[in-house]
Amino acid sequence: MTSPTADHTGLRAELDALTTEAFRPEFADIDRRSTLDIARTMNGEDATVPAAVAAQLPRIAAAIDATAERMARGGRLIYAGAGTAGRLGALDASECPPTFNTDPGEVLGLIAGGPPAMVTAVEGAEDSRALAAEDLTAIRLTGRDTVVGISASGRTPYAIGAVEHARALGALTIGLSCNAGSALAKAAEHGIEVVVGPELLTGSTRLKAGTAQKLVLNMLSTITMIRLGKTYGNLMVDVRATNDKLRARSRRIVALATGAAEPEIEAALAATNGEVKNAILTLLGKVDGPTAALLLEKSHGHLRDALEAAGNH
Fold first, then answer.
1. What digits encode the pLDDT tens for the residues 49-61?
2. CA-to-CA distance for 287 and 266, rounded, in angstroms?
3. Residue 1 pLDDT > 80
4. CA-to-CA dists, residue 54 to 22, 35, 227, 238, 277, angstroms
5. CA separation for the pair 26, 28 (Å, rounded)
6. Is the pLDDT of residue 185 over 90?
7. DSSP state, residue 232
8. Which residues are known to be catalytic?
């Protein structure tokens, strides 16, 4: 039997080989610097992240196209990670319903240890491949779905287990990490490795690595939704108006898309139960509310296609 000490020795050697865990001797005196100097140093480190993301853009684009194709056929987008990575996935998933009017079950975030892990570390949860398989089984993963394993190190068993289980079921798999040659990228169909280098605080991957993951997740969800017709130009025409700010934004979006006067906008929204995309179609396509709904259903929610159909209606 392998002793716990031997296990830790092996894991320590594994961590020593990761760029995200590397020690930066030039920052050994960081706690003795002025606050402004530390802030400038952190800002300088953060400024290197977009270039690291840019190096992976072809891989990111390929993953997005594959994801959009699955989602267009009714598949879901599912993020799986532990700690910071899991929280970032859950954050991105939670923002899709209000932004793109997706069903809460369309984009999901799984975190090792479940919902309590959003605010409190759950001991040992990230070390279990089996737990990831259980979590995916619980949400009835199918081959139409896309699973994105997220791990800064690229070695987190929970993220790798999620990708391996998903791939075995025929689901699309994406591995997002911040180390080159990661086990996570190797396990996934689409490996995205944003190498941001060592952190200001040794091993604190909620910093540059977390920022890089957030940028990539922004792209994955946003561009996928653009491909699915959730926008009209750069307007969020599928926004769900759940509060006063979003209701005001809805009216502004209709105004920007149509140039209509306030009374026309109010009438259009009233005729379409507040659905921004439908309201725009009634104004630009000169159709009534029920016809707008029918045209959008036939065009699978793509407003440009529905407008073209309205012109021939």
1. 999 999 999 999 9
2. 15
3. no
4. 22, 30, 20, 28, 32
5. 6
6. yes
7. B
8. 95, 126
Per-residue pLDDT tens over the stretch 72-113: 999 999 999 999 999 999 999 999 998 999 999 999 999 999
Taking alpha carbons only, the member of 152, 143, 73, 139 closest to residue 110 is: 139
Q: 249: which 2 tokens?
A: 């934004």
For residue 67, give both structure tokens: 């994801």
Average pLDDT, the chain: 92
Whether residue 125 contacts residue 117, with contact meaning beta carbons closer than 8 Å, is answered with: yes
Q: Kindly give the residue spans of alpha helices, DSSP state H, lying in the chain.
A: 4-16, 35-46, 49-54, 57-72, 83-100, 129-138, 157-168, 183-187, 208-227, 244-258, 262-271, 276-285, 289-298, 303-311
The two structure tokens encoding residue 300: 């699978």
How far is 243 from 225, CA to CA, in rounded Å?
Answer: 22
pLDDT of residue 203: 87
**Euclidean distance between CA atoms 80 and 171, whole angstroms:** 14
DSSP state of 271: H
Give exposure, 83-110, as e/b (b: 16+ Cβ within 10 Å): bbbbbbbbebbebbbebbbbeeebbbbb
Name the phi and psi angles at 103, rounded to 5: -70, 145
Residue type, 240: R
Least confident range from 1-5, 198-202, 238-242: namely 1-5
Greatest Cα-to-Cα distance within the chain, rounded to the nearest angstrom? 77
pLDDT of residue 24: 86
As given in the structure block, the two tokens for residue 274 are 């507040």
118 residue type, one letter:
M
Q: Choose the weakest-confidence range: 7-16, 146-155, 169-178, 262-271.
A: 7-16
H or E segment and range at residue 110: strand 107-111
Element at 191 (helix H, strand E): strand 190-193
Q: Three-state SS for 21?
A: helix
Strand, helix or coil for residue 190: strand
